[in-house]
Amino acid sequence: TQHECTFVFAGPDGWPSGVVMNFVHEDDRLWLTAVEGRTHVVALDRDPRVSVVVSSAGTALRGRRMVTLRGVGTVHRDRTVIDHWLDVFARRWRADAPLEFRRALDTPRRVVIEVAELRVAVSHDHRRLG
Fold this sequence. Notes:
By secondary structure, the chain is an alpha+beta fold. The chain has helices at residues 39-46, 79-93, 98-105; strands at residues 4-10, 16-22, 24-26, 29-35, 49-55, 65-76, 110-125. The model has no long low-confidence stretch (mean pLDDT 95).
């Protein structure tokens, strides 16, 4: 249901840093997109360990829920991979205008980020509170 997350990475000074990003969950991986040179892209080249925090905020899900996933990030710069995922992102995030959104996403220095080896680090489901 959710397609927005907080992407957490080791900043240039070693402190955890985070950015809010959209994602697609497919084949037990998370897929995101960014632009070459952004702090989180540079950080992934240095240290691929990341956490991704997803909450139920803004969705129709009942109760307050969240999960933090840990994984290993890979930056894809191959045009074939980028083209495939830009099509997927456009259809998932802007079903009302996928072609227009696809064109807007296809900017110079675009990369795709894959987060694999996902495992749950922390979770919370308010509905389970007694």
